[in-house]
Amino acid sequence: MAQLKDKVALITGAASGIGRGIAIRFAQEGAKVGVLDLKLEPCQKVVDEINQAGGEAVALEADIAKEAPVAEAVQKLNDHFGTISILVNNAAIMPTGAVHETSPEDFERCMGVNLRGTYLVSRAVIPQMLEATRGSIIHMASGTGILGLPGLAIYSASKGALIALTRAMSTDYARKGIRVNSVSPGTIDTPMLEKFLGEQSQPELYRQMFDDMHPIGRIGRIDEVANVFVFLASDQASFVTGANYTVDGGLTVKGEQPQDD
Ligand SMILES: NC(=O)c1ccc[n+]([C@@H]2O[C@H](COP(=O)([O-])OP(=O)(O)OC[C@H]3O[C@@H](n4cnc5c(N)ncnc54)[C@H](O)[C@@H]3O)[C@@H](O)[C@H]2O)c1
Fold it and tell me: What was the pLDDT predicted at 254?
């Protein structure tokens, strides 16, 4: 059954990784999808893939940290497919380092994209959801917004803020037909992870460490995260708002794990 039939969805950071996976999966579920990312060409590749599989999508170029391009992208999606009823705020960057190892510019850019960008895209889309009295907004948070993990100070702060933003927004819009939730994945096999591993002196050791860190014994797949986004975007989740769904193989509830060996 097509769970998102005829709904119009905007997905940021959709040219790569989890965002791309969500865009393709939403289209399979019948949604008309706006594939937004920094550059048009990689968005168009995802759109072509969706169209070839019989879905409907449009490529949108915008830096979500900038207000005017965000407004233009939202207008372009409206012109193509009409009122947006699903917004996935997925785009993010992940500067690494403890606080003293990062620069104020790293801080500004990370908050500018991860937090301000999410705010700007939400702000641009919410008026039409209010008018239609329906909408589902899903912010991409992270297990790092809940747990303390070394070397990810600024990124973790941005993700923790998104969880707080989710709760606050859900209360503002609960009686107006708009549900607001967040998803906090554990480590997922994506280009962002590959980039992080590539920056380490022993990438294979780190990958093994990530596998071991998750009680399930491995890192997650993109489709395992996309499944939860389909649920939250769909009418199946009609009584779900203000929630932060962990999709992390048990990472954030972990006590001491028994070891087999
Ligand atoms: N991969 C993981 O292990 C993991 C774990 C937890 C949370 N997440 C979150 O999932 C989301 C997707 O991560 P991913 O691993 O697929 O990363 P990714 O790097 O593969 O994809 C992120 C996409 O966002 C885009 N983007 C970055 N800045 C942008 C901007 N200013 N405007 C528009 N687009 C922009 C990038 O171009 C890229 O296509 C992120 O929010 C990330 O924080 C990832």
Answer: 82
Q: Catalytic: which of 119, 155, 206, 245?
A: 155
Q: Is the CB of 65 under 6 A from ligand 1?
A: yes
Domain co-membership, 14 together with 130: yes
Residue 3: CB within 6 Å of ligand 1? Answer: no
Residue 146 covered by a domain: yes
CB 50 within 8 A of CB 14: no
Using the mean position of ligand 1's atoms as its centre, give its distance from the Cα of residue 37 in Å: 10
| Spans of the chain, pLDDT less than 50 | none
Domain count, the chain: 2
Q: Which atom of ligand 1 is nearest to the CA of 39?
A: 37
DSSP 173-207: HGGGTEEEEEEEE--B-SHHHHHHHHTSS-HHHHH
155 in active site: yes
Range of the domain at 75: 8-185+221-246
Q: Is the CB of 70 under 6 A from ligand 1?
A: no
The per-residue pLDDT for 256 is: 62
Residue 79 Cα to ligand 1 midpoint, Å, equals 26
* pLDDT computed for residue 196 by the predictor: 87
Q: In terms of domains, do 215 and 98 share one?
A: no
Residues 24 and 78 in one domain: yes
Within a domain: residue 204?
A: yes
pLDDT digits (tens, 9 = 90+) for 168-226: 999 999 999 999 999 999 999 999 899 889 988 999 999 999 999 999 999 999 999 99
Residue 259 within any structural domain of the chain: no
Tell me the C-alpha distance between 90 and 13, whole Å. Answer: 6
Residue with tokens 């999606």: 77
